[in-house]
Each structure stands twice: as structure tokens, then as C-alpha cells.
Amino acid sequence: xxxxxxxAEPAAEPxxxxxAEPAAEPxxxxxAxxxxxxQVPSAPATAGGGPEHTADxxxxxxxxxxxxxxxxxxxxxxGGLGAGTAYGISSMERSDVxxxxxxxxxxxxxxxxxxxxxxxxxxRPFTDGNRHRIHHADLRKLLLPAPSGATxxxxxxxxWVSADQYVSEYVEDNRADLRQALEDYAVRHIAARGWTMPxxxxxxxxxxxxxxxxMAEEFTGTEIGAGLSPDVLLRSAPGEVGIDExxxxxxxxxxxxxxxxxxxxKPVGPEHTRQAYVVAGDTVALIIHTRKGEALSVPFHQTLVxxxxxLG
Length: 312
Fold this sequence. Notes:
Number of helices: 7
Oligomer: single chain
Helix content: 25-40%
Distance between the termini: 121 Å
Strand order of the largest sheet: 1-2-3-7-6-5-4
CATH topology of the domain at 139-311: Protein Transport Mog1p, Chain A
């Protein structure tokens, strides 16, 4: 038994040694050539010693690789074009995208509006505790700002103006009486802003502050809700003036302001004028738009609505 054991142990050494050697090394070496390297492994020799494939007939693996590469490239190109198109459309304004452009209705682009701060302890003009409907905010900050693209009027910059400047908007024959009325009803301040738009429209806004709502109403010769009428003609519209039939916004039911809107009646001269009066508490607003040919109603009504909101 001892001799058999001793003989069995040496017999196992060759088998172990054979297993230790990498018998598959040639096959591994063939597989080690990367398919993306551009090199194709040499074809195994046939019994006659020549290659199995000729140079005119690529191996099957090479044909598969080339087809896969072509499809991959096509997918990447299409994907890139699609992503680029999507990004281009998403970064465009709506009006820049063909088929999605929105035609302008003629409104002007005003900056975002906000009411000015009040002095400590003061109230808004239409609160219950403000009996005389006084605007305690700085009158200049209640003026509508100029819209985008406007050229500011060098005389009407949003600051204080004199009574003479205000009455200069009217025909000369009635300026003396109007100036006397401003003194009789004790106008406290007058602020004004003017500008000219690229289409030639000239806009001017005046705010007149009196001592109370009653004084403002007496100056304009009206009562809240009764409607306003110009006491004298504007120098830019010296002829007949009629009601603006296109104005559809009625006086608010809460009675915060009274609005009257007028347009120069035909026939007009080289320029057409639209005008409006607003009485809001202790403040009277005069809004004027003048343009060669015709002063368009849309931007005029827009200006009127926004100025009225600032006063309300």
C-alpha cells in the first residue's frame, strides 16, 4: 500500500503541470485584437495553405462593423439636428417663430406700474378715512411713465410746471380766463410729462391737484359721474370737438373717477388730436394725443386707462 501511494503521487505531477500551462493562449491572443482598432485578425489557413477570404471579399465581421458604424453615425447626426432645432425654437420669441407670430394691436409697451409710497400716517384717496379724497403721494410719481421707444419732451419731463405752461395747451383767446380759473379754485400743483413715439404720435399728460375733491369738480364744472367737457378748445384742435364713440369703458360703479373722452371732429387739419379729462378726488388729469393724419385710438385709450388706474 505504501509503494502504491508513493507511485501515485509522482503520476499526478505531469497532469498538474499540464493544467498550469495556458493551453488556450493562442485563441486568447487572437481575441485580444480590438475590433475598433481598424485591424482584422489574419484568416486561418486552409488545407492548401491559402487564405479563406480574398481581399475583394471582406470578412463577415468587417461588413457588420461597417454597417453598424454607418447607422450609428446617421442616428447621431439626426439626433444632433433635432436637438439643435428644438433649442433654436425654444430660445426664440413667439413673434420670431414662423406661423406663431402675433400681430400687434397697436398698444404701447409701458413699464410695470406701481403706486408710490405714502407719507407716514396718510391714507389713499378713496379710503373711508380720507374725507376730501386727497392724494397724499407725490403728484409727480402719479404721472404715467413714458412707454418703450419714446423720445422724452424736453419741457415736460415729469416734474412741476407752471400754470402758464398748462394754459398754453389751449387756444390763445381763452388762456386768460383759464388762468384766472386756476387761481380762483386754488390749484396747488401741476405736474406734466410728454413724449413722442416713433410713429409720430405726440403725447402729453398733465395732473392738476386742488385742495379737495369739491374744488376739482367745481374747476371742471361737473359732478362725479356726470361726464366732463372741455371748457376751452385745445390749440392742437381749434375746431369742433366731439365725443369719442370708440371709448367703451364706463365710469366705475364705485364713483372713484369721472372720465370724458373726446376726438377732433372732421374735417381735421394736418394733425388729428384726441383728448380726455379725468377727475379723481382732488386731482384733474388732461391727456392729449396728437398725430399727423390720425391719432390712433388704441394707444390713446391705453394711456387713459393706465393713468386713471394710477389716480384711483
